[in-house]
Amino acid sequence: MTDASATAARRPGEQALTTLGLSAPDPDPADASPHSFPGGGRWRTEIPSCEGPEALAVVLKEASRLDVPIHRISQGSGVWMLTDAEITEMVESTGERDIELCLFTGPRGTWDIGGSTRTDSRGAGLRARGHDAVAGCVEDAVRATELGVKCLLVADEGVLWTLHRARVAGIIPADTTLKVSALIGPVNPAAYAVYERLGGDSINVPSDLTLDHLTEIRRVSGAPMDMYIEAPDDLGGYVRMYEVAELIRRGAPLYLKFGLSKAPGIYPYGHHMRELTLATAKERVRRGRLALDLLARHGADGDMAPLGSRLPGDLQRFEISS
Q1: In principle, which of 25, 147, 218, 255 could form an S-S bond with 226, CB 3.0–4.6 Å?
Q2: Among the residues of the chain, which ranges form H helices?
Q3: CA separation for the pair 149, 151 (Å, rounded)
Q4: 33 by DSSP, 3-state: which?
Q5: What is the DSSP letter of 77?
Q6: CB neighbours of residue 138 within 10 Å
Q7: Is the link from the previous residue into 232 a cis peptide, with omega within 30 of 0?
């Protein structure tokens, strides 16, 4: 998208407010991100929290019914919470539709025996505590990629760097993409650039970043960004649908993640949470339809990346010493 087209979208309420003498200043072309996905397009879509084959089937059926294009489907409970048969079924179902499947890696601090995560400060959060936790994440990565998974979700800087080194060394496939979790997402351009250099191919930023924050990030990095357009309650519960066009203009290349506020957490998923998980999976797709309808009404829906595209393009990396 050129800068001219990036500023061409109609903003919410623009015509009515102008008539009433309440028009806003024109967008500054200098705020627009100069970056796009390889192969074209400035935004892709993601349906998160798809916790197994049954939830995946619900998402795919609802996406077909509501005509919601999907580039990526992600899962949050982790590779270790799925059987080989379940992973294989998810790989095959997404592969038939040329959708990228992303599974979360391994042990995380909020589930282990470390007490600091249960204090008011939340300690180190989801990060992998100790060698064994890192090893579990690597075990998950190797197992998942051997079963055909091409994208891994990571919530620890050390795990990210280790898995990047692993794909360079051929331990996991070179075209495996590494997605940084929203739960450790960077909040400034310097940190964003570090995650890119550690191996991040897709970096989830917190949904409370301002539009100016996105512009600041885009001045130092072109790595694909993920953002919850509607965030789960444990990530703030923010609903930013009316900002979607501007989020794309500032933050491209951007994955639009359709989460769900006012819904109970479902990690780690098990069949005891089946009805809730299927119902929320279906509603996430509907939320996607609502956001895409807003884009269309504002004339900002014409720059979606081609379906089936998944790679991040050329990114900056730290040198791997021998």
Answers
A1: 255
A2: 3-6, 14-19, 53-66, 84-96, 130-146, 157-168, 189-198, 211-218, 244-251, 274-297
A3: 6
A4: coil
A5: S
A6: 19
A7: no
User: CA 179, 36, 44, 33 torsion: positive or negative?
Assistant: positive
Tokens at residue 10, please?
Answer: 């109609």
Q: Residue type for 315, please?
A: L
Give CA–CA dist 303/124, Å, rounded.
38
Residue 112 confidence (pLDDT): 73
Report the predicted TM-score, pTM, of the whole model to 2 decimal places.
0.91
Task: State the number of CA atoms in the 13 A half-sphere of 56 facing the CB.
Answer: 26
SS3 230: strand
In angstroms, the CA 222 to CA 196 distance is 9
Pairing between β-strand 151-154 and β-strand 100-104 as defined by DSSP bridges: parallel
pLDDT per residue over 102-156, tens digit each? Answer: 999 988 767 777 656 666 655 656 778 889 999 999 999 999 999 999 999 999 9
Per-residue pLDDT tens over the stretch 181-218? 998 889 999 999 999 999 999 999 999 999 999 999 99
